[in-house]
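Figure 3 (text version): structure tokens given as input.
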């Protein structure tokens, strides 16, 4: 069925979703990374970007928070571009783990496979695949330039967060060396982990994440810079990865109730992609037990419900002036 919405209807849905969810309580900041425990838990921003670049922003959408796991989507795109979809499937995988984001058990269960670039194991492995091998600075430049391309503007490293995370990432060190034992780290293990930790420590705004989401929804065409960032053929691969594991062990419940493929991070960010329709991002630090932002989830879900949209609804959606 064809479904026509006006821009004003979309803007109103975002505003209502923001107002209805801003007083929600529940959840708590991630505290296994000391820096994140101290972020103001009342911060809340909601941003939606249309395919033509028009953006609707409510709340703290220009506050720079830790991108954390949402970075996994961006670097997955980079290695899909550099190495191709087949190599990513063969060297990492595209399977949901059904387990927490930092699970070592998941690696053992998958018989030595990191599963997907969107959990810690696969994301560290993804950083090891970035070219050129052996050159940490050049690899970092690639990673961060790709962030700029996708988000439409630069995102700086949050030094304090990087230090905090580097000093406490013992579990990720264990993951890295287990993967090394299974030959699933394709460069120096310590360097690969450091690149992963750095990319998680990038400070991003909800406005930037929303542009990134819209670029994915637009099959690689960034609506702000008008640059084609990745080949159109990769768009379904990226959305598949997000759909299957974006909310960790709660991904099925999320997709079932919200209708939008989305990726969360323990910094409180959520990036949602409705292919061909829009990109959305929300940010609020308090998390549920799986590590997904309580308010960000509620706000994105509210937009979808208000507009009657869903990735599996079978509707052809048009947004008019
Ligand atoms: N840097 C975090 C970690 O490795 C990211 C986790 C997340 O956002 O899910 O634990």
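Below: residues designed for each position.
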């Amino acid at each position: 069925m064809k479904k026509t919405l006006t821009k004003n209807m979309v803007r109103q849905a975002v505003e209502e979703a923001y107002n209805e969810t801003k007083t929600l309580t529940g959840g708590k900041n991630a505290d296994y990374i000391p820096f994140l425990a101290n972020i103001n838990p009342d911060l809340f921003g909601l941003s939606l970007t249309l395919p033509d670049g028009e953006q609707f922003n409510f709340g703290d959408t220009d506050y720079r928070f830790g991108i954390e796991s949402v970075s996994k989507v961006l670097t997955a795109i980079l290695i899909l571009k550099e190495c191709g979809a087949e190599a990513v499937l063969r060297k990492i995988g595209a399977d949901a783990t059904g387990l927490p984001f930092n699970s070592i058990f998941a690696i053992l269960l998958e018989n030595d496979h990191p599963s997907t670039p969107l959990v810690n194991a696969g994301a560290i492995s993804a950083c090891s695949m970035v070219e050129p091998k052996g050159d940490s600075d050049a690899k970092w430049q690639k990673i961060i330039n790709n962030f700029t391309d996708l988000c439409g503007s630069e995102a700086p490293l949050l030094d304090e967060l990087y230090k905090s995370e580097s000093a406490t990432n013992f579990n990720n060190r264990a993951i890295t060396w287990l993967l090394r034992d299974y030959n699933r780290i394709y460069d120096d293990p310590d360097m690969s982990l450091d690149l992963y930790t750095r990319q998680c420590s990038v400070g991003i705004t909800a406005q930037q994440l929303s542009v990134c989401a819209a670029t994915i929804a637009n099959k690689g065409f960034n609506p702000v810079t008008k640059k084609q960032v990745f080949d159109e053929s990769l768009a379904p691969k990226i959305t598949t990865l997000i759909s299957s594991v974006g909310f960790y062990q709660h991904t099925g419940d999320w997709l079932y109730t919200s209708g939008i493929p989305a990726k969360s991070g323990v910094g409180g960010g959520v990036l949602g992609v409705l292919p061909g329709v829009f990109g959305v991002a929300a940010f609020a630090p308090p998390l549920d037990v799986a590590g997904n932002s309580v308010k960000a989830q509620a706000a994105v879900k509210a937009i979808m419900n208000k507009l009657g949209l869903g990735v599996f609804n079978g509707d052809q959606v048009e947004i008019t002036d």
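The two ends are 20 Å apart (CA to CA).
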